[in-house]
Design brief:
The protein has helices at residues 6-13, 23-32, 81-90, 98-105, 121-124, 128-131, 149-157, 182-198, 232-239; strands spanning 41-48, 60-64, 75-78, 94-96, 113-116, 160-164, 170-177, 209-216, 222-224. By secondary structure, the chain is an alpha/beta fold. It has two domains: 16-69 and 161-240, Ribosomal protein L1/L10, rRNA-binding domain (Ribulose 1,5 Bisphosphate Carboxylase/Oxygenase), CATH 3.30.190; 75-158, Rossmann fold (3-Layer(aba) Sandwich). Strands 7-1-8-9 form a four-stranded antiparallel beta sheet, with helices on one face. It has a three-stranded parallel beta sheet with strand order 4-3-5, with helices on both faces. A two-stranded antiparallel sheet has the order 2-6. β8 (209-216) and β9 form a beta hairpin. α2 packs across α8 and α3 packs parallel to α7 (149-157). The radius of gyration is 20 Å and the shape is globular. It starts with 5 loop residues before the first helix and ends with a helix. The model has no long low-confidence stretch (mean pLDDT 91).
Length: 243
């Protein structure tokens, strides 16, 4: 197994692996560290104190980040007739019905969001083995099973994100690009934290947010103080003053 490259090792040397950084400190350090030659995504990873084997402790929802994610989102829509035309006019990249379902069943997954009208769930339902593991299965709870396909497409194109716990009770969300300025990244992070806290399941017991890590696509992770869930933006001005 090969080790990390020189750039990664140099970045890791600048990080105190035992420290809990404030959100502003973590984002500033991620931007200061030399990155890859492309515009890396900035990712937030939450480890939550949930028992996801219990249905009432699972976490799933959607949110809009104030500055988007910087990613170009490809949207596929399962619809027919007028709804298919509405989807195309709203900017959907791929539109189809049984024909699209057959392509997906054959392995085509070149899209980031899948939307379906309710009458198409007969075609989409059999695609669970392909779409489910990739987090692409349309779901009424996230607004991706709807007759209002135009709004769903527009929201997806504007950066509407879906988040959910994985089997280990972790949540992984992209909060922007490394090229974003510090305030934009911090505002996106604050919005995400506020949403995770708001969506805490009523059945959750004990410590809810156990750990938060911020990282870039190719960089090492920084541990962020999970108790810093308020006053996040105020920290930016305070910590901008040189020591």
């Amino acid at each position: 197994m090969s080790g990390h490259g020189k750039r990664y090792e140099a970045a890791r040397a600048r990080i105190d692996r035992e420290a809990l950084y404030s959100p502003a400190e973590a984002i500033r350090l991620l931007k200061e560290i030399e990155g890859a030659r492309f515009d890396e995504s900035v990712e937030a990873h939450f480890r939550l104190g949930l028992n996801v084997r219990h249905a009432d402790e699972q976490l799933r929802g959607t949110l809009m980040l104030p500055h988007g994610t910087g990613r170009v989102t490809r949207v596929a829509v399962f619809a027919e007739g007028d709804k298919a035309r509405e989807a195309e006019e709203a900017g959907a990249d791929i539109v189809g019905s049984a024909d699209l379902a057959a392509r997906v069943e054959g392995g085509f997954v070149d899209f980031d969001v899948a939307i379906a009208t309710p009458d198409q769930m007969g075609n989409v339902g059999k695609l669970g083995r392909v779409l489910g593991p990739r987090g692409l299965m349309p779901n009424p709870k996230t607004g991706t099973v709807t007759f209002d396909v135009a709004k769903a497409v527009q929201d997806a194109k504007a950066g509407k994100l879906e988040y959910r716990t994985d089997r280990g009770a972790n949540v992984h969300v992209t909060i922007g690009k490394r090229s974003f300025d510090e305030r934009a990244l911090l505002e996106n992070y604050a919005t995400l934290v506020e949403e995770i806290v708001r969506a805490k399941p009523a059945a959750s017991k004990g410590r809810y947010i156990k750990a938060i890590t911020l990282t870039t696509t190719m960089g090492p992770g920084l541990h962020v103080d999970p108790t810093r869930t308020r006053g996040i933006l105020e920290d930016l001005e305070q910590e901008a003053v040189p020591a």
